[in-house]
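Check this.
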Amino acid sequence: MVTVNKTIKPLEVQEPTHFHRIEKTYKNNQDSDYTEKLKELGQEFNYAKNSNYYWSKPDLSLLYGTPLYDAASETQKLALNHLYWVGNYNHTAVSEASTSIYNMVTSGVFRAVGGYETLCDELDFETEQESYHIRTFQKIGYKSKMAIVGKTILGNSLYGKTEKDNNNWLNLLIPQPVREYFTSSQGSSPFSIQRDNTLSAIAKTMLSDKKQYYSQYLRNLEEKGEPIPAPADGLAGRIAPRHWLRFFTVHWGMSPFMACQYYSLRYTANAILKNQEYPYVRYYRELEQKGEYIPAPTAVSYYHLLDEAFHTTISQTIARDMYKDFPKPTAYEKFISGLIVYKIQRNLLSGLSGVLPGRCVYDDQMLMLFYYKLLKSPLFNMETKEALDWMEKCFCQEHEGFQTGLKYHHSLLELMRRLFSRLDYQWAVNRDMGIMAAGASIDKAIQNNIPVFKEFSKSVLAQDN
């Protein structure tokens, strides 16, 4: 009897496909890095050379489709087109500064886990790119804004005296030690410090089995006695108050699953930017094909999207696929991740604007204040009553601007559902973006604006008197 010896080869364990996608994205991002081109465009920008050209199709303009836009001169329409770019990229600059912080927070977790070195290198590279993007946006934005309206719409001081006067009587009723506990002119009040410490302790207690993954970035801040970062502006600043953002940041900087979940939030920022930026890219290509002059800001949008496309791929990959590398989320982690996305919908995506295309949140008094100052600026040079009359037509009556807003709302909703519908751990209302979808109503937007505008108008007239 002949015995045949068979050698059994061990099965080869293949890496998940998202590892290869991350490696490919990192390599391609390095090979096609456009930061130097963006830096050059920012340094050489001259508003006068670009002032007589539209930087996008007219529908990406402040007040587009409103009665006021229809009555505006060509010079004013060009300025409204340029100011839309300025406002959009000022907001993008602030949001990208927040992204840089959270890249460092989450990469600290992935480094602690081990095996994600290429991903961490990509996040570091993205952070470096963002610094170039931010400086370019700020340079072009500042030069353009100063050329169009000067310092007229810088700052928001309209309500300063009124609020202070209204609080005087309350200050007399509250004992000074109590006031000093809740408020401080020197920085954080004792109450806010205690609140932040309590929320941080809750997060660390609920995630105590993940303490070995706590981000080195956050450890370093704690060792220096510095607070956990919480942006007050940009997209992150709209999602929740700063103490809630600090609370969420502890989760993103401690749990591998929650670090992945953060990238669904970052994808939201990517999607909002893409929804507004891709039309600039189409416009750039149209001008290029016709051999026509391409304004520098249009070129900035084009090259920025080429860089940002890699960032979007990373956000999708981590949020949609990489979270599955780790143990299934606990009930607590599911709750926190659901709460975060719910807040994103409520505070960032729940409405519709008829005066600012691409804005998917109801118009508020701060936006009305911006437009009031714009109409009072040298660009329109209106008296108070004329400005308020035009604003009422724009905010409180149906017009084409709401239809334009609805178009951008629908395209963003599709982008959001493309990711969130695939996150099995999310609440049902988050998977189908139910709150965002319900906000796509012109009638709701107008009904929301009417009382807000009445209150705003009342404040303006009281200030004038």
About this structure: The two ends are 112 Å apart (CA to CA).
